[in-house]
TrEMBL record:
CDD domains (alphabetical): YdcF-like
Taxonomic path: Bacteria, Pseudomonadati, Pseudomonadota, Gammaproteobacteria, Vibrionales
All residue ranges annotated as the Transposase IS30-like HTH domain in the record: 2-45
Gene3D superfamilies named among the record's database cross-references: HUPs
Record key words, sorted: DNA recombination
Xref: Pfam families: DUF218 (PF02698), HTH_38 (PF13936)
The protein's name in its UniProt record: Transporter
GO molecular function: transposase activity
Organism of provenance: Photobacterium leiognathi lrivu.4.1
Superkingdom to which the source organism belongs: Bacteria
Biological process (GO), any one: transposition
Length: 351
């Protein structure tokens, strides 16, 4: 069924059918539209849980008058061009920018590269396959194994399942890792004590460590204050709470989130970690997860996945969408994590 805007008459029809107790699926059939259209109409245009067709139509007309096609900001497009030029794939770019709160889909990036190629640009040279068209190959037939032994001829002792290898699972290699918890530090007080925000992160870490007793714990933070570092104080705090020191890796050299990501990635790689949970404040985890993903491409394990656990340190409305300043900071730190210089200049920063 092709998409159509609801008319004022159809809205009055929906209202009448609702009053008669007709189900939404039946209303959709009678109005001749998709069921999702009716659901969306009721969700958008109800007032105090009541549907008023007159108000609904007026709201729809008003939205259409003020509507405009979304345009991707110029600075984001320039950043995408920069990442393509240093051989990032569209999938990597889309993943990082989406996690940073600057959503962009990989299909749009491919279309942008194709448009650039038509205009004489060279961005397509940086794609993995050079933007070549897919060519169908010949179907290969399965080869017959030479000198194959039928399962009917296997030794009868195998049926007892007593020896290593008698079960197929015996020869399957399992996972090397048990996961990791990565806690990001926070600036210490002038006297060398921990800030309440850092204690909050540690309490979250402690709860997760108890819930995941085999998980490795990476504590990263190296800005010294009164001859103490965040990593050292965090480790002492957890050990005092009963966490074994054998589970803990102290990282006492990081002085920024970029360092947190790069230095921790070496530890994750060394222990063959495939999944890590990053613990920080809610206003910080968007930047942290983005940089950790980039660092894992550069210095760490392959195919590692990340998620985050945080507590809100700002109103939820402020945390929902990153502002321009936060996005600019993520763009710059992404370049630094990747090993490039970053500058305070147009178009990455508007004037």
């Amino acid at each position: 069924m092709s998409y159509q805007q609801l008319t004022e008459g159809k809205r009055y029809q929906i209202s009448t059918l609702l009053e008669l107790g007709i189900s939404i699926s039946e209303i959709a059939l009678k109005v001749k539209c998709h069921g999702a259209t009716v659901y969306r109409e009721l969700k958008r245009n109800r007032i105090h849980n009541q549907y008023c067709p007159k108000h609904a139509h007026a709201s729809s007309v008003s939205r259409r008058k003020t509507a405009h096609k979304y345009r991707i900001p110029v600075e984001r497009i320039e950043f995408v061009r920069l990442l393509i030029s240093i051989d990032w794939s569209p999938e990597q770019i889309a993943s990082v920018l989406t996690k940073a709160g600057a959503s962009i889909c990989q299909e749009w990036i491919y279309r942008y590269i194709a448009q650039d190629k038509r205009q004489g640009g060279k961005l397509y040279h940086h794609l993995r396959q050079g933007h070549k068209r897919y060519r169908k190959g010949l179907k290969e037939k399965a080869l017959t194994i030479k000198n194959a032994v039928s399962i009917d001829e296997r030794p009868s002792i195998v049926d007892n399942r007593e020896r290593f290898g008698d079960w197929e699972i015996d020869t399957v290699l399992g996972k090397h890792d048990t996961g990791a918890i990565v806690t990001l530090g926070y600036a210490l007080n002038p006297d060398g004590s921990m800030h309440p925000i850092l204690v909050e992160r540690l309490e979250t870490t402690l709860a997760m460590a108890k819930a995941n007793p085999d998980a490795l714990i990476v504590l990263t933070g190296g800005v010294p204050m009164n001859h103490k570092t965040e990593g050292k104080l965090m480790a002492d705090w957890l050990i005092e709470k009963g966490i074994s020191k054998d589970r803990i890796i102290e990282e006492n050299y990081a002085t920024s989130t970029v360092d947190n990501a790069l230095f921790s990635s070496y530890a994750l790689a060394r222990h063959h970690i495939k999944h890590a949970t990053i613990i920080s404040s809610a206003s910080h985890v968007r930047r942290g997860q983005t940089l950790f993903e980039i660092a894992s491409w550069q210095t760490g394990p392959q195919n590692i996945t990340f998620d985050t656990v945080s507590y809100p340190d700002k109103p939820l409305k402020e945390l929902a969408t990153p502002n321009d300043g936060e996005l600019l900071g993520i763009y710059r730190d992404a370049l630094r994590t990747y090993g490039m210089w970053s500058y305070r200049s147009y178009p990455l920063e508007s004037r």
